Amino acid sequence: MSDFAQVIGQNAEHLTDLDRAIGDGDHGSNMTRGTSKTAALAEAEEFDNSAAYLKKVGMTLVSNVGGASGPLFGTFFLRLGGALGDAEDIDAVTFGKALHAGVGGVLARGKAEVGDKTMFDAWSPALEAYDAAVTDGGDLQAALQAAVDGAKQGRDATVDLVARKGRASYLGERSKGHQDPGATSTVLLLESALRLWPNQRILP
Ligand code: ADP
Ligand code: MG
Q1: Whole-model pTM?
Q2: Are 203 and 50 a contacting pair, CB within 8 Å?
Q3: What angle do CA 200, 70, 84 make, to 5 degrees?
C-alpha cells in the first residue's frame, strides 16, 4: 500500500487530467487522499493476518477515496482479504482465487460490463491473462506480469470506447478518444503488486 500510495501521488495530476476530460477532475485527488491513509495504517496498527489488514485497507479506501472509485477499490480489497483469510505463503493459485473474489466485488458494486469504459475494462483482461499464466504453470510473478500486461491492453482499449457507466457516460459519444481514469489507476495497482511480489506476503 505504501508503494501504491507513492505511485498514485506521482500520477495524481495525470489521473486528474484524465478525469477532467470525461468526468469531474477529482480521480487523482480522490485516490491520493485514500491511498495515503492506507499507507499510514501499517504504522498505526498491527494486524494479525492478511484478511484483517486488507479489510482495514478496504474500509479506509471506501471512506476516504469517495466518488465512484472509492467503494469499487474498497470492495476489491475487502473481498481480496476475505478470500485470503490467514494464508501466509501466497502462491499464484491462492492469490488468483483472491483476485477473482476482489474483481467479483468490483463487478457486484459497479455492474459494469466489458466495453462500458470503466476500471472493469482493465480488471477483466487482467484476470484472464492471470488465469492463462497460471494454467501454463506460471508462478506468482509470471501471473502478475501477465495481469499487468492484460490490464494495460484493457486500459488502452478504453480510449476508443463510449462510456456506458459512471460519470463519463453523461458525455455519450463525446467520451470517445479519452482513456478511462479508473482503468489507469487499476494498472498502477497491479504494477505495485508485481513490484512487490518477492515478499509473497500481504502484511506490511
Ligand atoms: P467519480 O466518477 O465519482 O468522480 P472517480 O473520479 O474517483 O469517481 O472515479 C471514476 C472512475 O470510476 C472511472 O474512471 C471508472 O473507471 C470508475 N467507475 C465509475 N463507475 C463505475 C462502474 N459502475 N463500474 C466500474 N467502474 C466504474
Ligand atoms: Mg471523478
Answers
A1: 0.97
A2: yes
A3: 30
Using only C-alpha atoms, the chain has a radius of gyration, in whole angstroms, of 16
Grid coordinates standing for 108?
457486484
- pLDDT tens for 111-124 read 999 999 999 999 99
Report the half-sphere exposure of 53 (CA within 13 A, side-chain side). Answer: 22
What's the mean per-residue pLDDT of the chain?
95
User: With helix as H, strand as E and coil as C, how does 39-75 read?
Assistant: HHHHHHCCCCCHHHHHHHHHHHHHHHHCCCHHHHHHH
Alpha helices in 66-91 (DSSP H): 69-84
- Cα 92 from chain centroid (whole Å): 18
CB 97 within 8 A of CB 50: no
pLDDT in tens, 173-191: 999 999 999 999 999 999 9
Nearest CA to ligand 1 atom 9: 69
Helix (H, G, I), strand (E, B) or coil at 44: helix
The three cell numbers of residue 77 are: 480489497
Distance CA 38, CA 61 (A): 7
Ligand 1 binding residues, C-beta < 6 A: 19, 23-24, 26-27, 30, 67-69, 72, 110-112, 118-120, 165-167, 180-183
